[in-house]
Every structure is written in structure tokens, then in C-alpha cells.
Amino acid sequence: MMRILGKASSINVRKVLWTASELGIAFEREDWGSGFRSTQEPEFLALNPNAMVPVLVDGDVVLWESNTISRYLAARYGDGRLLPADALARAKVEQWMDWQATELNNAWRYAFMGLLRNSPAHQDPVQIAASIAGWNRQMGLLERHLETAGDYVAGGAFSLADIVLGLSAHRWRKTPMDARPGYPAIAAWMARLEVRPAARAWLPDNIV
């Protein structure tokens, strides 16, 4: 059976879990990462020398990097679901996935580590405020896009872009911050996501 290595509290692991659930793929998840088995163990490093979760083991296939794993699952098992075969339609999904991994993640990292992870290295109030402002600004970009995009990020069909950004938006809504815009288009989009059974499984209130 397919194995997914990584703790369920990891946002990157949940990208893969949500993708697999949407596609109806049977899998076994193994707890690796902080609080569980160490990713520095030789067994894990043989699969991913970066010592990061998640890792996918699908028969002889071993992959790491959450967006790459999600693309692989959709391409191999999706039959056109989640990731279109058409080059332009696929590119529109992937550009939002790449934006999440670069621009959006870089914006929220300091505030999230300081406010929710209580990291001693991320307690400068000036940098926290700057990170929150940048985070809200990036979410504003998504808000403006969703105002005209259709029901989902890449248009009328649910895709990998919604999984990746849905998890990010969930984190944004659950992180305690003094200033968070209302962003009605994001709220309406999240309401559409949250009725999906797979989304309910991997967007729990107690995990950010």
C-alpha cells in the first residue's frame, strides 16, 4: 500500500493527505517529524536527504516536496481531476501552487513562528507586524483574483491550487493577529471548500 511519511499536523503533509483523499487513494500514514520518529534516522534520510516531511513511497517510487508529490498523485491517479492535461489549464493551476510556495510562504513565516509556534527566535514585534502586513497583502492578491476567477482558484473546477491555497488560507484565518481584513471572496471560497469531505478531514480547527 502507498505510504505517506509525516505527521498530520504539518501543513505540507496535509497537502498530500488531502490530495490522496480527493482521489480516493488508499494509503498508510506514518508519523515522522518533531515529536515522533526523527527524520535524521538513516531509514528516513535514505528516502529524503533533506530530512523533511512529507515523503511518498508508492511501490518503487520515492518522492519528496509536497507540491511535487501532489502533482504526481494527480497526474498518475487523477484521470484529469485536480490537474488538467491541457497545457495552459495546467499552468494556471501550477502558477498558484508555485506562488503559495514562494511569495505567500515567505510572507507569513515570521509571524506564524512567533505567534503560533512561540519560537524564541521570532519574537521581535516589529518583524511580527511586518510579517502580518505582508501576509495580509498577499492574501489580498488572492482575494482580488477570487473576485473574478469563478468558484475556484483556477476557474470553475476544483484543483490542486485549491488544496494548496485552502490550507494556507486556513492557517491565515486561525493565526491570532490584531489586523486581518475580512476578504469576502476568500470567505465564500473557503465555504465552498469546507463542504468537501476530504477538506473536512484535513482542515480541522485544532490544527493550523
Automatic annotation (TrEMBL):
Domain GST C-terminal stretches: 86-208
Pfam families in the cross-refs: GST_C_2, GST_N
Top-level division of the source organism's lineage: Bacteria
Keyword Transferase: yes
InterPro entries found in the cross-reference section: Glutathione-S-Trfase_C-like, Glutathione-S-Trfase_C_sf, Glutathione_S-Trfase, Glutathione_S-Trfase_N, Thioredoxin-like_sf
GO molecular function: transferase activity
Keyword Transferase: yes
Residues covered by the GST N-terminal domain: 1-81
Keywords from the UniProt entry: Transferase
Record-stated family: Belongs to the GST superfamily.
Protein name, entry field: Glutathione S-transferase
